[in-house]
Specification:
alpha/beta, 9 strands, about 40% helix, about 20% strand
Length: about 270
Amino acid sequence: MGHSNISIFVPHLGCPHQCSFCNQKHITGCVEQPKAKDIDDAVNIALSSKNFNSSDAEIAFFGGSFTAIESSYMLELLSSASKYVKNHTVSGIRISTRPDCINAEVLEILKEYGVTSIELGAQSMIDEVLIANNRGHKSFDVVHASKLIKDYGFSLGLQMMTGLYASSKEYDIATATEIIKLDPDTVRIYPTITIKNTYLEKLFFEGKYAPQTLEDAVVLATKLEDMFLNHGINVIRVGLHTIENDSYVAGPWHPAFRELCESHRFKLKL
């Protein structure tokens, strides 16, 4: 039985920066912020699925920077989710956040409420790329936060992006190399897609940013996935889940991006 997430999207919630590529509302289709009842509803829907497996399911907060949101609201969401960990409906809670929004105090709270997995949006390990894309943190923050997360016994996930503004194939490979050194349990690889109402869209129409072609993105993502797998790191996502139909501007989006990577891998073997 495969791993499953009960996903709760918190678009832009807690994000202190507007990154060049990001418009979560266009990616997730979510506008309203979730309430405790939304978590209950999501769990009940998951329980009705014949494929649901309590021993390998997590409630997952994605979309914003979970540990940067207002404290009382974060605790409200965690309280609603943690009761399902305590009664063994799910095995744990997964959150996604920024590398510069992790510290010992936050990790103590997350541990208390049953959080088991923390994913960091590293995106790049090249400082000039992070600066160019308005990330608001540097590679050191990724290194520091990753060590803290592992020291506290959480499962560490790292997310990286290929084809960012001011990046290159060589920079993306270097990012993967640095991520491998941090020894995460899981990795996600996201080719950069230009979405409406983002700084990247402005750069694209000004001719200052050239997105990856689909072919180039597939070839590079396949290489990066092999790098991670060869070091025993589980790649749990390659490519965006979905985007709203009218939000796409440019870039290598495909509804079955990972399958394209698998086909490319078989082609190389042949």
